[in-house]
Specification:
With 122 residues, this protein is an all-beta fold. The protein has strands at residues 2-8, 17-26, 29-34, 38-42, 57-63, 69-82, 91-101, 107-115. The strands form two sheets. The chain has a five-stranded antiparallel beta sheet, with no helix packed on it. Strands 1-2-3 form a three-stranded antiparallel beta sheet, with no helix packed on it.
């Protein structure tokens, strides 16, 4: 599974908008791909911020229409990299990944994700 979530907080007078997309594959075949019906939320507050506190993981919920619902959890084991500003002060984590169709047997594996954000003072 590959997911993308972008927090747009460019207008401080409004609530930030999160844009998400996903594709889910099994045994080399794409099972589902969409830019709608995807919710990606940090497991811990305050949410995705490259300059804020570390994130312990993400919960990814997908409404796949007639296929049903998927739910996944990516849990951080440790942070393995922190940007030096060359790519916007990002951070990289590795950990575990588990989930699948709601109501079916879960599957799991290794997870890797990054957060990127503006450099402080931008």
């Amino acid at each position: 599974m590959v997911w993308f979530a972008q927090l747009d907080a460019s207008n401080p007078s409004t609530t930030p908008t999160i844009t998400s997309s996903i594709y889910i594959a099994r045994q080399g075949e794409i099972v589902y791909a969409s830019c709608t019906g995807v919710n990606v939320h940090p497991v811990t507050y305050p949410g995705p911020s490259a300059t804020g506190p570390n994130i312990n993981g993400y919960k990814i919920s997908v409404n796949a229409g007639q296929l049903g619902r998927f739910e996944f959890v990516a849990s951080a084991a440790r942070m393995v990299g922190e940007g030096d500003g060359s790519f916007g002060g990002g951070k990289r984590w590795i950990g575990e990944f588990e989930g699948g169709f709601v109501g079916a047997k879960s599957d799991g594996g290794v997870a890797l994700w990054e957060t990127m954000g503006p450099d402080e003072g931008s």
